[in-house]
Amino acid sequence: MDIKAYLESRCKIVDAALHKYLPGGKAYPRVIHEAMRYSVFAGGKRVRPILAIMTAETLGYKAERVLPAACSLELIHTYSLIHDDLPCMDDDDFRRGKPTNHKVFGEAVAVLTGDALLTFAFELITRNAAAKGVKPAGVIEALRLIAAASGTGGMVGGQVVDMISEKKEPSLPVLQYIHTHKTGALILAPIMAAAELCAAGAKEKKALRIYGENLGLIFQIVDDILNVTGVEKKLGKSVGSDAARKKVTYPALYGIEESRRKVRELRERAGKAAGHFGRKAALLNALADYVIERES
Amino acid sequence: MDIKAYLESRCKIVDAALHKYLPGGKAYPRVIHEAMRYSVFAGGKRVRPILAIMTAETLGYKAERVLPAACSLELIHTYSLIHDDLPCMDDDDFRRGKPTNHKVFGEAVAVLTGDALLTFAFELITRNAAAKGVKPAGVIEALRLIAAASGTGGMVGGQVVDMISEKKEPSLPVLQYIHTHKTGALILAPIMAAAELCAAGAKEKKALRIYGENLGLIFQIVDDILNVTGVEKKLGKSVGSDAARKKVTYPALYGIEESRRKVRELRERAGKAAGHFGRKAALLNALADYVIERES
């Protein structure tokens, strides 16, 4: 299993689809469509759409079956980064080594760009109803899952708790809440949305949920470890920026070694759940390993 | 037809539904749920949800048939006001006579509150699938219409053009674009979404679309006239604030008298379209008259 080649190939499918789905950069009113494309094509790794595609493939379907919903997750992820970077939020000037949306287009346009991407994400999911074999009820449930994962019971909730905890002593329950909501929810959502669009059975859904929950935690803890140990150039953001802001992170609370041990434990749980799919588990396992071994 | 009593009674249905649908104000993380409820229950007249209910009733159904989708429109309207009021946008301290969301909760929470309301709006629409007689495909089409009306081809597009036109000389095409997109789209959307949820026929949809398009224009021009002539207390915002900002408005371009004539012309067209529903047109006509005669 050459996971790097796999990710590159699926990334191309996602990029081509995003180009096709998004309104043209010259469409009126031009500034907002330019700004949307600027951030969507600013070098994202398409992790969330690829998770949806990977799930569809594990269940025996092709990418096309879940492509609009898969891409909607990238739009939601992008909107959240644009709003996070705003001066009134994290006040970041750079993201993935490029000036943030508000630095290029101004704050007002950046707010509206986030709003527009979030809105368009949901419009895009409805197009999944046209995919062969997908039932309307499956689209509705996928959309509901994605919305719930993005709102105050998911990503926005995690963002709020992260914000109000910044200058306080970190506690484990708060840390776990932030991880499972701010990052984990949008790692789990593409997997479960794809499961709905592929009409997965109850046992398949249960295995995918356990896999996805553990993968989400791995993702966040590895991210926090990289923030402490990573090379600035590779990450495209300042190393140690979490510590400087006194953000609640796993390494800050337990140190690097214990954080790495925790990652191994979560990886084992994810692998056990993936085992449900027998030989088809290879993709799920390879991706989990890749997330752990990545350097940026 | 006692339109005031009708509006009051439907407003109560909408308020009760919003209270039921929205997460509790004490639900964790508390600040975001408090902030959502603060702005949703800040005295809105529930025009958009009532338009959806009115459409359902004109088509022979009860409010329950369209209630989640109807309420979603109020959440989208509220999110747009919260983001519009931000310091980087219109920088307004008061809205409907109350301090704006960011004045009470701070800018970061206000951005996230808007995001959360927009996200929850789409989650809420999916609940309409549980309403008796509603088909999943109808819910998907209603959601698609609402998303399209809220994005860069609708409300956000209108907002962008309004923003970039502020310090320029107003032109009629620009003015019409702003009116039909910034306000009109979210007046038309509840009507057309309700038509989908009630499985209206092609001729009914066509009549409702013409009615809704004209009502949207009436709504915006009357709003602009009130901004020039209205009483500050009744409007809950500063009279003449559009002129102070050099906003493109109908009265600024054509004067009050010509604006009033235009409203009468639009009213006639709306009435002609409503005529399709025979005796059932009473509600549509009474509402159009009410919008024209309102003082705030």
- The domain count of chain A comes to 1
Give the overall average pLDDT of chain A: 93
Helix content of chain A: over 70%
Count of runs of 4 or more consecutive helical residues of chain A: 14
Q: What is the oligomer described by this structure?
A: homodimer
Low-confidence stretches of chain A: none
Number of strands of chain A: 2
Give a verbal description of the structure.
The structure is a homodimer of 296-residue chains. Chain A has 296 residues and is mostly helical. The first copy, chain A, has a single domain (3-293), classed as Farnesyl Diphosphate Synthase. Chain A has helices at residues 3-21, 30-40, 47-58, 67-85, 101-105, 107-126, 136-150, 155-164, 172-197, 202-229, 232-235, 241-244, 250-274, 282-293; strands at 94-95, 98-99. In chain A, strands 1-2 form a two-stranded antiparallel ribbon. In chain A, a hairpin with a 2-residue loop joins strand 1 and strand 2 (98-99). In chain A, helix 3 packs across helix 9. Chains A and B meet through helix 2, helix 4, helix 6, helix 7 and helix 8 of A and helix 2, helix 4, helix 6, helix 7 and helix 8 of B.
